[in-house]
Please model this.
Amino acid sequence: MGEEPAEARLTGPVLVVGAGLLGTSIGLALRRHGVEVLLRDVNPQNVTIASSVGAGVDAAHASTTADVALVVVAVPPDHLADEIVAALEAGDAWVTDVGSVKAAPLEAVSARVDRDRLAHYVGSHPMAGSERSGPFAASSALFDGRPWAVTPHSDANPAAVEAVTALAALCGATPVILGPEEHDEAVARTSHLPHLLASLVAGRLADAPPAHLALSGQGVRDVTRIAAGDPALWQQIIAGNAHAVSALLTDVREDLDELLEAVGSGDRARVAALLQRGVEGTAAIPGKHGGPAQPTAPVYVVVPDHPGELARLLADAGDIGVNVEDLHIDHDPGRPVGLVELAVAADRADFLRESLEGRGWTSHR
Amino acid sequence: MGEEPAEARLTGPVLVVGAGLLGTSIGLALRRHGVEVLLRDVNPQNVTIASSVGAGVDAAHASTTADVALVVVAVPPDHLADEIVAALEAGDAWVTDVGSVKAAPLEAVSARVDRDRLAHYVGSHPMAGSERSGPFAASSALFDGRPWAVTPHSDANPAAVEAVTALAALCGATPVILGPEEHDEAVARTSHLPHLLASLVAGRLADAPPAHLALSGQGVRDVTRIAAGDPALWQQIIAGNAHAVSALLTDVREDLDELLEAVGSGDRARVAALLQRGVEGTAAIPGKHGGPAQPTAPVYVVVPDHPGELARLLADAGDIGVNVEDLHIDHDPGRPVGLVELAVAADRADFLRESLEGRGWTSHR
Model:
C-alpha cells in the first residue's frame, strides 16, 4: 500500500570512491538520511576533509566493506572506467558513477568484465555542479531539485537500477531514466552544445576594443556566462562525448551556413524563419517543476544599489502576494542603480507593477 | 568651475517622431526634468496614449514647432532614413534617431541632403528595450543606468553632438560616444552575434525529444533566453547591419570548423585552447557600473517556492550586510523548492554562507 520509501531500496553502506565536490556532496546528502557512508580517495587529504565535514568515514577505518550495498564512483572522467572495473571486481555491490558522459565509460567497462559483473553496473549523472571543486565546495543541498539521469544498459540488473534511483532520490534529486546513448545525445544538446557555442561567442569578445564592450547589455552576459567554466574539465567532457557533439556541431554548421547565406544575400524571410525556430526552441524547454512552461511576463523595477534594497522590493512583492518566478539583475555601467527584472505569472504582472508603484517603486513592463 | 548641467544643453522643446516604446519612454523621461516634449506619430492613437500617460503633448496642438531644439526619430528601422530626412528638411533643429544600427541610415540620409543639413544630424542608440512594444509598454525608467551610444559622423556639428549627449543623460542613461561604423561593429559583437548563436542553440532544441529536454539545466536556459525575442524586429536589425554581422559570422564559422576538426580528431589541447579563449572573453566584459570586473563568488541557497521566501532570504542577506551583486533562480523540474544563486564579493561569500546557515538557511558555495 503506497510507495516503498527510497531508503528501503538501499540496504547497506554506500562506498564513495573519489571525495571531491560530487562525492563529498553525495556523502553529505546520504548522511542526512542516516545512510552509512564509507569514503575512499587516491588523495588521503580529501578523505580527511570529507569525513571531517560529516560526509562519512574513511573506508580504511571500516571493519569491513563486504556488506557495501552500492559503490559510487565520483572520479574525473579520464579515470572512470578503471575505477568502475575495480569496484565490480572487488565484490558484489551495485556500482554506479556520476560522470558527465555515459556511453564511452560503459563501452570501456564492457570490454573488461564479463556479463554477470556488468549487470551490477548502472551509470548515472546528476545535473549539478559548481565553478569550484574539491570537498570544501561540497554541500548536502547540491542536488536538491536537480534532474539526476539514471542510465541502465540492456544487461543491467533491475535491482541495480533501483539502488541507483534510490541514491538519486535520497540525494534530493529527481531521477530521470534514459539509456546511456540517449543520455549522451541529450546532454550534447542541452549542455555541451550550449557550452561550446557560448564559448565561441565569448571568444569573439576576447580581442574586442574596450569601447565596443562598453555597449554590452544583459543579453551577451547571459549567453556567455557558462563559457567561464574550467577548460581542463570541459575538454574531458567534450572528448568523452565526441560522437554526439560532432553530430550536433555539424548540424549547427549547416544552420550557420544557411544563416550566413541568408544574411549575405539579404534574404530577410529566411533569417526570420531561422529566428522563429529559435523562439520555438526556447518554448520547448520544460517549465519550473517539470510541468509545462507557464506564461510569465517581466516587470522591471529600478533598485538602488545598496544592501537590503532588493530585499525590500521582494518583501513588497511578497506582501502584494505575487510569486516571483525568476529574477535577473541588469548589470549596467555608469550608474549606482540596478534594473531588476521580475518574471511573474503573465496575468499578475500589471497588478504587481501597479501595486509596486503604489509603494513608491519605479517600474515598467 | 563644475560641469554645466545637461539640461542647459537642451534649450527648447524636443519633438519625438514615433510614439512607440522608445519614443514614449523618452518623452516620459524628459518630462521628469520639465523638458517640453511634442509628440508625432503616423498612428494618431499612439500620440493619444503617449500624451495621456504624460509623455508630452500632441505636436499638432502646439502653437509652433519653429523653436524645437531637437527632433528624436523613434520609428522602425525600415523607416528611419525617410523620417530623418524629413526632420532635417523641416527646420534648423538638431536631429537624432534611436535605431539599432547606425551606418546604413546615415548613408541613406547623406545621399539625400546637403552637407549643411547633414551637420544637424547625429545618430544614437540606447541599449534598452523590452519584449513588449508600443506606448503602453513605455516607462520613464527604461534608460536608467543603460549605455546610450551617441554616434557622430565626421561632418556633425559639435553642438548637435552635445544636444544628443544631453538627451541621453536627461533620460538617465550613460552616453558612450563612438563612430557609426564602430557602433555597428560593436553591437554586431555584443548583441547581434549573441542573439543569432543563441537562436541556433535554441533551434536545435525545437525538435528534441521531451525526455532529452528534461535534462535542461540553468546553463542552456541562460544561453537561449534572448532567442525568444521577436523575429520580425530582429530580422530588420540583422538586415540593417548585414555587413558587420556577416564578417563576424564568417569568423565564427572558422572557429566552428576548427572546433569540429579538433573534436573529431580528438585533439584535446586544441579544444581546451578554444575554451580558454572563451574564458578570456567572459572576463573582458566590463563589470558593474563600468568599472573593472570585481571578483564575485556564488552562494547557493535552497528556497521554498512560496511568495515571500526569496524576500526573507534577501532581507537576511541585507541584515548581514552583504550586497547581492547578482541573483539567479534555478528552475529545476520535480521539486517545490528552488535553488537560488547569490553572487557576492568573493571575500564576503564565506561570511554570508555561514551567517545564512546561522539563520536556518541551507546553503553551499
User: Anything to note?
Assistant: Confidence is low (pLDDT under 50) at residues 288-292 of chain A.
